[in-house]
Amino acid sequence: MLPGLIDTQMAAGNGPEVNAGIVANTPLGRIGAPAEVVPATLFLPSDHASFLTGTEIVVDGGLSA
């Protein structure tokens, strides 16, 4: 799981200027919510992912696209 900027205490520690810069470069233009990462995270140990190996799931609002 490769999350982008997610609204957490850790992200708050970046400071508002750093987070604003990240948001400015994120195509969706906002900080992600933890609830947006949870479904992808729960997918990995599920039976639906039983044939996945070495996969990177990026949840970053398009920042790395």
TrEMBL record:
<comment type="function">
    <text>Participates in chain elongation of fatty acids. Catalyzes the reduction of trans-2-enoyl-CoAs of varying chain lengths from 6:1 to 16:1, having maximum activity with 10:1 CoA. Has no 2,4-dienoyl-CoA reductase activity.</text>
</comment>
<dbReference type="GO" id="GO:0006633">
    <property type="term" value="P:fatty acid biosynthetic process"/>
</dbReference>
<keyword id="KW-0443">Lipid metabolism</keyword>
<dbReference type="GO" id="GO:0019166">
    <property type="term" value="F:trans-2-enoyl-CoA reductase (NADPH) activity"/>
</dbReference>
<comment type="subunit">
    <text>Interacts with PEX5, probably required to target it into peroxisomes.</text>
</comment>
<keyword id="KW-0276">Fatty acid metabolism</keyword>
<dbReference type="InterPro" id="IPR036291">
    <property type="entry name" value="NAD(P)-bd_dom_sf"/>
</dbReference>
<keyword id="KW-0597">Phosphoprotein</keyword>
<keyword id="KW-0275">Fatty acid biosynthesis</keyword>
<dbReference type="Pfam" id="PF13561">
    <property type="entry name" value="adh_short_C2"/>
</dbReference>
<comment type="pathway">
    <text>Lipid metabolism.</text>
</comment>
<keyword id="KW-0521">NADP</keyword>
<keyword id="KW-0560">Oxidoreductase</keyword>
<keyword id="KW-0444">Lipid biosynthesis</keyword>
<dbReference type="InterPro" id="IPR052388">
    <property type="entry name" value="Peroxisomal_t2-enoyl-CoA_red"/>
</dbReference>
<dbReference type="InterPro" id="IPR002347">
    <property type="entry name" value="SDR_fam"/>
</dbReference>
<protein>
    <recommendedName>
        <fullName>Peroxisomal trans-2-enoyl-CoA reductase</fullName>
        <ecNumber>1.3.1.38</ecNumber>
    </recommendedName>
</protein>
<keyword id="KW-0576">Peroxisome</keyword>
